[in-house]
Amino acid sequence: MLRASLVRLYLRARFVLFQRRRHRRLVLEHFSGHPLVVLPEVFNPTLFLTTGFFASVLSPGLVPSTATVLDVGTGSGALAIVAAQLARSVAAVDVNPEAVRCARLNVLLNRCEDRVSVEEGDLFGPFDGRRFDVVLCNPPFYRGSPRDLWDTSWRALDFFERFTGSLAAHLEPAGYALVLLSSTAEGDAFFSGCATRGLTTEVVRQHDVISETLTVYRVARAA
Question: Which domains does the chain possess?
Fold first, then answer.
């Protein structure tokens, strides 16, 4: 407990001293070897551990070259761009219109517009009738009403219930989702939603950063 508290204190001090000037500002970053423009109202994936860990998990074994991918809550488009190096095609969606603009800029910046499309919408809304081999989801961890556009990356009222309720209808028969959760997240609704909807969860990889544990789950229809 003391060790975790000290790590959180260190991370907070590092943010205040070195990272604050890159938070909620227009900046050019580098993420997993890719240039990335981040707009002020968009989550900056280089300032937190979650997106980088998720990107490190993506591999040809999980995202085959023939796969069609959907990145739900794409934000800056970072995961969609990483997935585009592996998959046949990637669709990305975000409820935040600033994130949609940001992701489209980054798709052009990284010259992958032939493989990545970005839509504005809530969860699977723009993709009625479409199914995907792999769905990526780095969700809002906390329950509540977002305070502003930027906060939609952290907070939502019923995200996990709606995500698990709609997931199976957008998966190919052998498809699955890769979902990232933190041990600090309010994730009970995710697991109860999976159980209610006949979805299985399997741990793909975990990363212990002392102050929290990050886990990527593979979510699929029960056999």
Answer: 2-221 (3.40.50.150)
